[in-house]
Design a protein that fits this description.
Layout lengths: L3 H16 L25 H9 L5 H18 L5 H23 L4 H14 L2
């Protein structure tokens, strides 16, 4: 015997189909984009997708984004001054927080630093 909730859901879906509610959906007729969640632990996948759909970035990505922004701002400062010094201080704080977070997660920040330097030298 079917669950009452499933029966109600089926009826609602059928009614919506009859009214044409699904005719002009974005992506109609296109393949679904399936996220590769193999790197996310199984018990965290549902919460990861909810946060991703809400536009929330993981803490390390948010910090990386802020670090990139600060580096660009510093590059725009033509002369040494108070503003550039404040930006450099903020950058160092963000990098420190990022490195601490990575160490806590078992990722060596020094390795990441040298990897970035190699990519810069190779032009990548």
């Amino acid at each position: 015997m079917m669950d009452i909730v499933a029966v109600i859901a089926e009826n609602k879906i059928r009614e919506a189909m009859e009214k044409g509610a699904f005719k002009n959906l974005p992506g109609k007729g296109k393949p679904l984009k399936i996220d590769d969640l193999s790197g996310v632990p199984e018990e965290l996948r549902a919460s990861y997708l909810i946060l991703k759909n809400a536009g929330v970035l993981p803490q390390e990505l948010e910090l990386e984004k802020e670090i990139v922004s600060l580096k660009k701002l510093i590059a725009c400062c033509y002369e040494e001054g108070e503003e550039k010094a404040v930006l450099k201080k903020k950058l160092n704080e963000k990098i420190l927080r990022f490195n601490m977070l990575m160490e806590k997660r078992g990722i060596n920040p020094a390795l990441r630093y040298y990897k970035e330097r190699v990519y810069e030298k190779l032009g990548g």
